[in-house]
């Protein structure tokens, strides 16, 4: 599959780049996508939730009223879960939500997500560009030229680029990542995926291994 390379003004440069059918043209495996996105979201959870159970509530252990003759249910402790302020029954405890996922499954998930994006015309290849200094206005001009200023977009860079990152940081619908750290979640969460020309070549080489 060939895709035209655009410049930062949204014009066709005359160059074309091949999108590998092994990455952008496979039959998507939706279950692999589900597992990879599930793992990504699970890894974001801190798991620090905690509530006090009966043994941890700071109340006296004395019997709060006599056993019989009150006309109400017997009660032996202020810590009982039936009282306001008492311990919670089976409350949450700190835990680790992360789980292992096979490397080949993760690779299949990324290829499947990229194939879906390519099928929906969500892949854009942009000529390599640089900013002399961080300038959000200049970055927004690129988005406008590509007609994606109102779309959730992910820019895939060849490597760390501080000026480009800082220029896009304040734009809520734009995310910048380097090719080696792009996740299935990033791909599925974006309406447009913009690959810089140099980043795409390296990305395809790494994902084909």
Account of the protein in words:
Helix 5 links the parallel strand 4 (153-157) and strand 5. Helices cover 33% and strands 15% of the residues. The protein has helices at 21-24, 30-44, 103-119, 136-145, 162-168, 184-188, 197-207, and strands at 2-6, 12-18, 123-126, 153-157, 174-178, 192-196. The radius of gyration is 27 Å and the shape is elongated. It is built from 7 helices and 6 strands; from the N terminus they run E-E-H-H-H-E-H-E-H-E-H-E-H. It has 2 domains: 2-46 and 97-207, Ribosomal protein L4/L1 (Ribosomal Protein L4, Chain: A, 3-Layer(aba) Sandwich); 51-91, no CATH class. With 209 residues, it is an alpha/beta fold. Strands 2-1-3-6-4-5 form a 6-stranded mixed sheet.
Q: Average pLDDT, to the nearest integer?
A: 90
Question: What is the class of the largest domain in the CATH system?
Answer: Alpha Beta
Shape: elongated
- How many E-type strands? 6
Write down the Rg.
Answer: 27 Å
What is the CATH superfamily label of the largest domain?
Answer: Ribosomal protein L4/L1
Element-level helix/strand string: EEHHHEHEHEHEH
| Corresponding CATH architecture of the largest domain | 3-Layer(aba) Sandwich
Secondary-structure content class:
alpha/beta
Biggest sheet features: 6 strands, mixed
How much beta, percentage-wise? 5-15%
